[in-house]
Amino acid sequence: MNRTMEELRDFATTISHQLRNPLASAKTRLEVLLTEDLPDNVKIEMEKIKHNIDRMVEITSQLLLIARTQHTSAKNFEEEDLSSLILESIDQVSQKYNNKEFLIDSIKEIKVKCVGPLLIHAFANLLDNACKYSSSEKPITLHVEESGETVKVEVCNYGDPIPEQDRDKIFLKFFRSSNARTEGFGLGLAVVKAIADLHRAQVYYECEDGVNKFVMILPK
Predict the structure, then answer these.
(1) Would you kindly state where each structural domain of the chain is located, as residue ranges?
(2) Does the domain at residues 74-219 carry the CATH identifier 1.10.10.10?
(3) What pTM value is reported for the model?
């Protein structure tokens, strides 16, 4: 059984690698064609095709990230400043949600052993998820707290809570909550969980007083 699962993971990784370059090439060609003088109805259809290619690029990227965590070990860890990684993730997500406000505690330098780019991606996925499901007028807030040999990072938003019956499934690959209201593949939180597992970190969801919290507790 373990061998079969490993073969399936390797197959998914290979397919994702093989798809990424042709998809990127097709997207580039479409973007060039869209600058040309074409009938409006043709451009509308081409925009739809480009949108679907973007979605395929996203799913292959997320699957490759999960595969990367399965082929990375502690020997690849380096000492990084956690606050810098969090700020980088905020910068990435704020470019996508430029009308959204992000509030973060005044945090000092906190050193953790990790794979920096992967943690940035995990925090960015949590922030992206918070933006998708937050009330439009409310900010996204982040809290960082040191406690002995661990650091707790909370990503919080105001919005509808995740239904009770879905909460034990939200970190599974391809799971979509019954209250999902945006396009997606159910991979964002699965990537977060894979990255957390690699770093021997806990990650979980809770809801208190109308505030949704995704919490990651990292060892230093």
Answers:
(1) 2-70, 74-219
(2) no
(3) 0.75
CA separation for the pair 23, 51 (Å, rounded): 12
Report how far residue 182's alpha carbon sits from residue 98's, in angstroms, rounded to the nearest whole number. Answer: 18
Please say if the pLDDT value at position 25 is more than 90.
Answer: no
Strand partners, 88: none
Identify which of 150, 134, 155, 147 has the alpha carbon closest to the alpha carbon of residue 86: 155
Residue 52's Cβ-count burial label (10 Å; 0-12, 13-18, 19+) is: exposed
In this predicted model, what pLDDT tens digit does every residue of 37-87 receive, in sequence order? Answer: 888 888 888 888 887 777 777 777 777 777 778 778 778 899 999 999 999
Name the token pair of 53.
């290619």
- CA–CA separation, 187 and 174 (whole Å): 5
Measured in degrees and rounded to the nearest 5, phi and psi for residue 186 equal 75, 35
Paired residues of 219 in beta bridges? 150
